[in-house]
Protein: Protein kinase domain-containing protein
Organism: Colocasia esculenta
Amino acid sequence: MATTTSPPCFLLLLICLVFLFLALCAISGGGASSDADLLLAFRSSVEDPTKGLSDWSPSAAAHVCNWTGVTCSAPSVSAASKSGSGLVTSLDLRSLNLSGEISPALCQLAGLSHINLAGNSFNQPIPLHFSQCTKLQTLNLSSNLLWGTLPDQMTLLSSLTLLDLGRNRIEGPIPLGLGSLWKLQVLNLGSNLFSGALHPSVFANLTELTHLDLSQNPTLSSELPRDLGKLEKLQKVLMQSSGLHGDIPQSLLGLHNLEVLDLSQNNLSGRIPLGFGLGLAKLLCLDLSQNKLSGSFPIDICYGKVLSELSLHTNAFTGVLPESLGKCSSLARLQLQNSGFSGNFPPGLWSLPKLTIIRAENNWFSGVIPDSIRTAARLEQVQVDNNSFTGRIPLGLGALGSLYKFSASLNGFYGDLPDNFCDSPVMSIVNLAHNSLSGPIPAPRNCRKLVSLSLAANHFTGAIPSALAQLPVLTYIDLSNNHLTGEIPQGLQNLKLALFNVSFNQLSGKVPSSLISGLPASFLQGNSGLCGPGLPNPCEEVKQKRRNVGLICALISFAFAVGVMLLAVGLRARHRSSLMQPWGPLPGSWKCVFYYPLKITEDDLQAGLNERNCVGRGAFGEVYVIGLPGGDTVAVKKLIYSTSLSQRSLRTEVKTLAKARHKNVAKLLGFCYSEGFILLVYEFLPKGSLGDAVARSDFSFEWPRRLRIALGAAQALSYLHKDYVPKLLHRNVKSTNILLDVNFEPKVTDFALDRVVGEASYKLSVASELGACCYMAPERGYSKKATEKMDVYSFGVVLLELITGRPAEQAESRDSLDVVKWVRRKINTTNGGFQILDPKISNSSQQEMLAALDLALRCTSVMPEKRPTMLEVVRSLQSLEPIVDLSPVLFGELPESSER
Ligand SMILES: *[C@@H]1O[C@H](CO)[C@@H](O)[C@H](O)[C@H]1NC(C)=O
Ligand SMILES: *[C@@H]1O[C@H](CO)[C@@H](O)[C@H](O)[C@H]1NC(C)=O
Ligand SMILES: *[C@@H]1O[C@H](CO)[C@@H](O)[C@H](O)[C@H]1NC(C)=O
Ligand SMILES: *[C@@H]1O[C@H](CO)[C@@H](O)[C@H](O)[C@H]1NC(C)=O
Ligand SMILES: *[C@@H]1O[C@H](CO)[C@@H](O)[C@H](O)[C@H]1NC(C)=O
Ligand SMILES: *[C@@H]1O[C@H](CO)[C@@H](O)[C@H](O)[C@H]1NC(C)=O
Ligand SMILES: *[C@@H]1O[C@H](CO)[C@@H](O)[C@H](O)[C@H]1NC(C)=O
């Protein structure tokens, strides 16, 4: 073949070889680069706005071990590094606000075993090259903006003991291959967007695991993996809000070392397995709240006497709590509210010395609060409203010095309210409304912090204690619905009350005037003896003018200034100058097959294949535009023909392509072949390709035209995928393969060329093509077989080009970003898609564009199974069209002709 190449091409080949050689050197000669060089290479691809890495400089390369975040092994005599210091073993660059690209250079650091890049702004998929960091023991990438799936390649890091990917935006399934990371002790995948079901054995091999965090992945939908119970070293399991359903497996009983188990905010149902807790001797914290668990709670959860936090609230239990809970001497926080429990509240619970919070409101608990509550000296908060508690309020309650909230409304408490009820120096909320308490309201003795006092709907008698007026921060007083008598103390005027409700008592006398002017009369109603201006009974002595007194409501309005940051998306596209290749005349004899009547001879073709007519060079060869003697113009694509295909099957394959007829598929008029070459003859489309258009700096198609291009291309692909026999994959969808006719109707070209040139050379050609990478679905790197979903991905990229007005790759900008990354980053860091839309398009199309953006994002999902089919894409795009294709028939000439 070299004999046919002319000198410039040979030169090109030579240059390529030199580059290849250099690249190989860079890879294989890793040892040749010093650690400092590698770190500098890492730094060069990173944005460092806070200059945290400013001491990483070539001039200080000798002191690499002193650089920020770098730790080295102890220098050894035989150390390879020139400076005599050791190898870089650890890189700790947490919270430096770094962004940019994580460079593969990291993994060439021969001694590197710890990486911590947590708390930065890296906004990219998990770099595949981490799989080459085989010595890595800990990898902490938490709290970044990483997206994409958890790549299978990560499972090659078999030395990892710690993997923290928490607080990112990683999606997709949790790979079963995780089992090969069998040394893992800490695995944090929490606060991500993982989805799908967990394989029952996904963690089965991780027998060293002590910490597992899958929490806050509400997009998962899974049962609890059964094999979890085999991981005997587990100490901490966080799976709150992780889309779990089904029951709690019996196997969890085997986790003898478990200290923390949080399964809250899931959809777990069923009964708690019998004996649950018996094995959990070290359990400190159990949170099963906000599920749908039912049945009773039949077990001694406090087996090891170390449990300090038990949260079962918001469930559908029906039974009683075991008495044994009352012996849970370490318990500090107990949350049982809204969970359906009934029966006797275990009395022992009231006197646990470490208890700080008891919440049990909205259940059907019965029982009394014993005086021994005084031994629960650390109690801060008791909330047992809406139960069936009875008995007296114990004196012991007043002995609790830390209690700030005691709320026990809607129960059956009776008897006097002890006069020490507010002795706690921090007491601020007392709510005993809706009980059967009686006797006088005791004058509070201490109570400097009391804010709210509700004793409504009881049987209190006597006068309102005037001592209430001495409480400096008292703001809410509800004494309504009692049997109180006497006058309202004048002193209460001095309080800054927000609520004062004494309605439905037997109070009498003159209401302090500021209590009237500041409050609606309804707070006083039902007290026939009260008098004052504005009341039904104005006091006799004072004949004031009746005034309408309105409640002065303090309305606080917040003004939210909504700043909309509009980021102008500068688009500087550049023509890519076509590579002109002068070619000599073609050797050998030619055979031609035409599917359309064409006035063309082999000689015409031969003559046309010259430098002047060459308009570009694609992945597979040059493209020529040839004017034929008859006046027609054709586009000719010259392919290098691998001899693997017999001439006969070549004819068959080309015919297959030629027979694909669709208004949005470029016509293949015929083809010629000779030794080594194939010429594919296509209809010529004068407007060039969509890719050319997008790359122009003045690209300004209006949205309806863009939508029609997208729809046409989608229909063509759907036709190839579904309607055409045999089904064809395009395999090279990109905007430069979408040609535009005079009416800007798109025509897809260059499809299924693999069938002509053969798989091997097809792959080679595509891989060598500049810029094609942006269109390739991520799985194309590792999956052998081409799929429809890969075409869908590529189409999604084209759609993004149409929506953003950005070419798929902007080569000249400093951070050369493909449009998918650009869009994902924008979405990750801003709210809503507005900043992504091409600013050159008028706002009136915004809704349609946002809908198209949503579609494009689904098409470019990293997970093939999340991408729609081309048929679904067609339907979605059709639904965005205001007027369907019928319109020309109905309305004659379309307004868009003005664009022509
Ligand atoms: C590293 O820094 C320490 C203190 O900052 C200094 O004493 C030491 O000389 C430095 N080592 C080198 C090799 O620069
Ligand atoms: C971190 O970087 C972001 C942009 O990348 C910037 O908005 C933010 O202010 C930076 N924070 C600090 C502490 O430098
Ligand atoms: C990862 O690093 C962050 C920031 O330093 C830290 O808060 C977190 O605990 C680390 N993860 C693990 C599992 O140690
Ligand atoms: C499970 O762990 C063992 C080491 O304990 C390892 O050799 C094996 O490859 C792992 N199996 C899987 C399926 O990952
Ligand atoms: C729980 O399951 C029900 C249906 O079974 C579903 O409607 C609901 O969204 C689920 N809730 C959560 C938090 O997953
Ligand atoms: C009292 O608790 C029951 C049972 O949880 C609930 O249905 C009811 O709405 C609650 N009543 C009030 C007033 O909160
Ligand atoms: C005041 O108490 C009465 C009787 O309990 C009640 O009907 C009314 O809603 C209460 N007003 C306010 C504002 O709480």
The longest strand covers residues 633-640.
